[in-house]
Every structure is written in structure tokens, then in C-alpha cells.
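Notes from the 1:1 (GR / supervisor)

We went over the backlog. Supervisor wanted to see one worked example end to end before approving the batch request, so GR pasted a single chain during the call. The sequence is below; no edits were made to it. Supervisor asked that the structure be written out right there so they could see what the output format looks like.
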Amino acid sequence: MLAPTELERIASVCAAIANEVADDSGFVSMRSLLARFQAHLLIQPMLVEGMLASIEQGNGGINGEGRWAVLIDSETYGVNERDVESENGRRPLPNRLRNTIAHELVHSLAFRPSEFGVQLKAKPKSGETPDELVRAIERNTEQFSPLLLWSGKALNQLVVGKKETLSVEQLLEARRNIGISRHVLINRLCLLRRMEASGLLACAGLRNLAIGLAEWGNDGRSVVRNWPLFANFDRKIMPAFIWKIAHQDRAPADTVFPDKTFAMCGGSNSTIQLLADAGTEAHPNVKKLSIQISIEDKGRRPKGEFLFVVSVPASVQANPVAPHTLSSM
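Structure output shown during the call:
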């Protein structure tokens, strides 16, 4: 198990790498990311979606350079080397492929702890083999792939200077431009708690905001997932239903949200405004909070995932105070 300081160091390194290889818009191409990790992408038929492999230095790598390879299943993704070489912010590779590549590259840090200025002090526990230690380190580091995919540069461009909380439409546009999944979008924001020096959690765009995932059922209603979940409310006072979501996975939406006209509950309204019970986790119903809830406007396809966004309208927000964050990670 890695110490918190070691995890924070790895997070900082991943964030720095993303900023280093990102273009002017903040987009991180897989071509640039692979080059920074001195890794090659091999696309071929496989029994798994992706895996990391080391290249023996005695073989001189591939084309005389590089010590690592990310192997990708050609049947799962249907891309070729030309697609990778031509990738840019206007035409990113599929989100799932991008996340798989980033995921495997973060895993490589477990095998090269000092190469990027990360000196891990983890030692095997009593009876633990070196291989078991490496697998434990991999489990600790796999959460950091969003830091490689959504650069701080792009995140700053989205958040800094905003006068109001980010809308679901702005988040969806960012997701498309950056080439990330809904899961990665939420998890990247959750990781801001490890990057407190950025100050982004105090920006208006991310204050008094919750972002989560839901899934459509067969009856036009939805269930709410408890992971991933980002919530950043002043003084940790948030709508009581956010606390419920955090502790109960796949709760039917009509047991979470009080407005039956809301689309998630089977109604027709994709955006609603209401006065909700709010408070801390210990005392969730101590005040009323005026909020707005919006969802991603897409067809109600059974098992289809979509974003929902809970925010406090700018007109009722208090003066900025030091925020507290909730993350289900």
C-alpha cells in the first residue's frame, strides 16, 4: 500500500505530464502521451482489450527506441496506426481506447518508480512477494489515468474566469473536445482534491455543484449510480439527496428526486428547479437550498448512461468561502 504522500506525488507527476504534452487547447493526443512514456502502441488481435508489455533493452526496443509497449485489441477498437498519428482535438480517438492507453501507461509507473521523479518506498508486507507488491502498487495508481487525459491546461480554460457554475451543456462540450468518457470527466474533477494548490475548487465554475451518472431503465425512468460522484458545496452543506446517492447505488430516481415531472423520474422536464432539504452528512435536513437539476438530453435508451448536474443558481449563492469536497472515489 502506498503512503498518501506517494499517491499525491504520482498524481502531480501525471498532471505535469499531461500539461507537458498537451497542445495549445489543452488536448492530449495519444501519440504525444505514448512518446513521453517512451512507449509504443501495438494494435493486434488479442484476448483482452489492452495490456502493458516491457521490451527487453537488449533488443534495442522497436525501431531502436522505447522500452514499453501498450498492446491494443484490434477487433475491439477497429483503429490503425494512421488513426493514432492523425488524432487531434477535432477528431479524437474513441474515448474507451484513449482511457485504455492512459490506464496502461499509468500502470507502467509501478515498474519504473524513479524514472519520472517518483521514488516509491513501498515494501512487501510480511509474506508478500515482489509480484504481489507490484500488483498492489498497480491498484493504487490505476485511478490516475484521468489526469493524463484531461490536462490541467484544458481544465483551467474551462473553469477559470467563469462567473456561474458550469452547465451540463458546457461539460458535455468539454467531454467531446477532450475525448473523454463520462466516468473520466467526473473522476478527473474528483482528483482535484489531490491537487488543492490549483485552487480550482474555489472557482465559481465548480462551486456549489454536483455531477453524477444515471442509467435509463426499460420503463423510461432511471436509476442513479453512486460512483463516480463529484460534489463541491460551500461548508459541505449540500442537498440531502446527494448524501443518499453517495451511500446507495442504483437507487430509483423517483425515490431520490422529489419532482415527478423530472425526466429522470419518467416526466418530461430535463431541467427542474426546486427548494431542497440540505445539510451535512450528519445533519442532512437542517435548511432549504434553492437548486437546479439538469440532465444530458439524449434518448432514453435502456441501460444508456447520462450525466446529471445539480447546481445552486448564481443569484442565490453566498460569498465565496473555503469549499469542502465529497468524492466517492
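Supervisor's comment: Residues 161-327 form one domain.
Batch request approved.
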